[in-house]
Specification:
123 residues, disordered N terminus, membrane, mainly alpha, transmembrane helix, Phage holin family protein, rod-shaped, 0% strand, transmembrane
Length: 123
């Protein structure tokens, strides 16, 4: 015969603390997931900035420099093309940075605040 554990009584302090701890962890996880979702647009803009940066180093020489070389010296054509793509990368990076700074920290601060309030109210 195997011994089966009987469920703890509803008033058992250990069981109540375990239930409370589970709820706090679940609330903290939900809060962090929501905050992560808010950061997705900023991450997308960061990816755009990275893509422009790659274009600044790879595509500038071949197509744009050759087109500009028809009217300008090769050195100046290369500089102008790199400046345009670099400016696009910089603008996208600035937009991503501003979007990121406006968001709350990804930590479960609201859940922690609620737990502190509950604990201080019970004392």
């Amino acid at each position: 015969m195997s011994k089966s554990r009987e469920p703890a009584a509803a008033g058992d302090p250990l069981e109540q603390n375990l239930v409370l701890a589970r709820r706090v962890v679940e609330a903290a996880q939900q809060e962090m997931i929501e905050k992560a979702r808010q950061r997705i647009p900023a991450l997308r803009l960061g990816a755009v900035a990275g893509a422009f940066g790659v274009m600044a180093t790879a595509a500038t020489y071949r197509m744009n420099v050759l087109l500009l070389e028809k009217k300008l010296p090769p050195e100046l054509a290369s500089f102008i093309t790199a400046a345009v793509y670099g400016g696009g990368a910089g603008a996208a990076a600035m937009a991503a940075s501003r979007k990121w700074k406006g968001l709350p920290p990804p930590l479960p601060t609201d859940t922690a605040r609620q737990v502190v309030e509950i604990l201080t109210d019970n004392d």
